[in-house]
Amino acid sequence: MDPVDVVAVVGGCPPERSHFAREVARSTGRMPIPAQRLAAAPDPVVEAVALVPWCSREQGALVEFPDHADVTELIGACAHPGSPAVLTGVVCVVDAAHVMADLNREDCVLRPAVPHAPWHQIARALLHVMNVEFASAVVLVNWESLDTPQLSSTMALLNHLAPHARLQLHRGAADGRAAVEWTAEALTDGTPYDITQERAGWVTLLNGEHDPFMADPHVSAVHYENVRPLHPGRLERLLEHRLESGEFGTVLRSAGFCRLATRPDVTARWNHVGRMIAFSPLAVDQDLGEEDELLALGQDLGIIGLDLDVPALTAALDDAALTDAEFAAGPEAWSLFPDRFPAWPTVSDRAD
């Protein structure tokens, strides 16, 4: 049996998301699977993929996901060989009046993980930003309360976060049909999502392909690189006392790769949104094969924010890296640096 064509509707504004999902399903003829049907399941993505094969509509299915679903897990599940679903579109419904609040949320949700560690936390702000970054279409609701400069900055920010997504202002019931028809048109190419997604703005920055079609004087994006490892103590002070205070403007999203001097053989993922930042190991140098490439020698970051003082931010990141003297001292000296970041699991830890 051929995989079912699936369009996902995501977003953290349940009433507007649900209403829009119903309208898109009605307009496109797709079988609707509402968020209420998935919300009670331990894993909404697993539940959705299990339900999709029951779709009897030639047009496919339209699945509305609850706000605690992880869009990256959905992409992975649909791209997996043998999956009964093929994901051809992600519509993100965004409450324009609460974009900043959503990206600065500090709460987390519990998600199921592997059997031996059945739950893990994920920040809601990260879920919000990934919904935008992986969207093929972004629909803005409740934007009428914003003045023109605020709306311009909001739309430019979303476009910088997701430069390949189409943006649409939804004017409510009076314009509902037009917005739904626009969304259906935006999804007509049917290009499947795969595991090598490069839609996110920070990824396009790293690839030298960041070309948003909307500009605003308050919104900027920068690609930062430095081949020297980071001093964990100075990095901690930068994050907690200078970046958090807004000294360099509002850094809303930064992501990419980095290395800590105290863990010099590990390339880590730098993942930051709003008030949340996490570092996680991605690759160990000794485990790389002859044909494998290093993800990064040092820092390779995409940074997006509002009213950024780019020269000052760049200088501060440079100051967090090793000095000439520190670098010359070598890894044995680096191991003595204070490092209060959480320990990373080793291969044996993961095996257990």
Automatic annotation (TrEMBL):
Top-level taxon in the UniProt lineage: Bacteria
* InterPro entries the UniProt entry points to: CobW-like_C, Zn_Chap_cDPG_Synth
Residues in CobW C-terminal domain copies? 219-321
Name the PANTHER family on file.
COBW DOMAIN-CONTAINING PROTEIN DDB_G0274527 (PTHR43603), ZINC-REGULATED GTPASE METALLOPROTEIN ACTIVATOR 1 (PTHR43603:SF1)
What is the name listed in the Swiss-Prot or TrEMBL entry for this protein? CobW C-terminal domain-containing protein
Supply the source organism for this entry. Answer: Kocuria tytonicola
